[in-house]
């Protein structure tokens, strides 16, 4: 509790929620970043939320103001990259730089992800690979929109909404690119594999294994478990990932990627 009070975490949390709910104020956020309250990690997190949630047309201006504020901020505890011993501003700027590059890729990929995909030919695994590539591009393109859904309530996170769509056979723009394989049907039959959430078995799926390629987190895990428990009857969902990231380690990875980039 002492650390919560010292870092003024409630103040940063409130600012982040205002941004996510569309009522954030850039001037107030810049002033908060320049202030002496909060750790370097707290300030970086707030800057990332503001940048990812801002209007694409204002992204460049917002990024410039956030970068200037982080560069001018007094050195605090909990420096990005660990240790808290200097270089916090530089590491934070490196992390912001990498997120900027991801957002730029997302912007370029968006038109490709919206292009109509041709139906896969019978037995065409190349078509399946094309679908997978389009799926990956679409996930990247949604990176900036994802942050707007991370409200600390009963709201479903993106991964939970995707699981729900697949299990229930609901229309969903990402689920519609997923391939459903039914082992109960004869191999090679036209119904044994199909694209789209509508291919779900009659009655839906009651068990799911969700594996994230890359960093997962306990927020997604808990959100999936809460969703599963509310279903009638309850679903059984197993969650896994290549690694489990803490907020600190995630920011450290962003800083490393930004420092190694061009």
What attributes does this structure have?
single chain, 262 residues, two-stranded parallel ribbon, two-stranded antiparallel sheet, mainly alpha
Overview of the molecule:
The chain has two domains: 110 residues, no CATH class; 123 residues, no CATH class. 54% of the residues lie in helices and 10% in strands. It has eleven helices and four strands; from the N terminus they run H-H-H-H-H-H-H-H-H-E-E-E-H-E-H. The strands form two sheets. It has a two-stranded antiparallel sheet with strand order 1-2. It has a two-stranded parallel sheet with strand order 3-4. The longest helix has 27 residues. The two termini are 41 Å apart.
């Amino acid at each position: 509790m002492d650390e919560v009070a010292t870092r003024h975490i409630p103040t940063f949390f409130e600012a982040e929620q205002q941004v996510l709910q569309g009522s954030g104020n850039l001037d107030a956020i810049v002033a908060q970043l320049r202030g002496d309250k909060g750790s370097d990690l707290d300030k970086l997190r707030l800057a990332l939320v503001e940048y990812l949630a801002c209007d694409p047309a204002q992204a460049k201006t917002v990024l410039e103001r956030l970068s200037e504020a982080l560069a001018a901020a007094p050195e605090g505890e909990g420096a990005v990259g660990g240790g808290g011993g200097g270089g916090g501003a530089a590491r934070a700027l490196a992390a912001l730089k990498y997120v900027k590059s991801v957002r730029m890729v997302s912007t370029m990929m968006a038109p490709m992800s919206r292009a109509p995909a041709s139906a896969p030919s019978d037995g065409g695994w190349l078509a399946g690979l094309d679908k997978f590539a389009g799926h990956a591009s679409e996930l990247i393109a949604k990176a900036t929109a994802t942050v707007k859904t991370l409200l600390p309530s009963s709201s479903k996170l993106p991964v939970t909404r995707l699981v729900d769509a697949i299990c229930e056979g609901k229309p969903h723009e990402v689920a519609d690119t997923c391939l459903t394989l039914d082992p109960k049907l004869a191999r090679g039959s036209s119904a044994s594999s199909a694209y789209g959430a509508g291919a779900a078995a009659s009655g839906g799926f009651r068990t799911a294994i969700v594996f994230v390629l890359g960093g997962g987190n306990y927020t997604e895990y808990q959100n999936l478990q809460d969703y599963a428990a509310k279903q009638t009857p309850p679903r059984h969902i197993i969650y896994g990932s290549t690694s489990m990231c803490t907020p600190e380690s995630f920011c450290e990875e962003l800083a490393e990627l930004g420092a190694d980039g061009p």
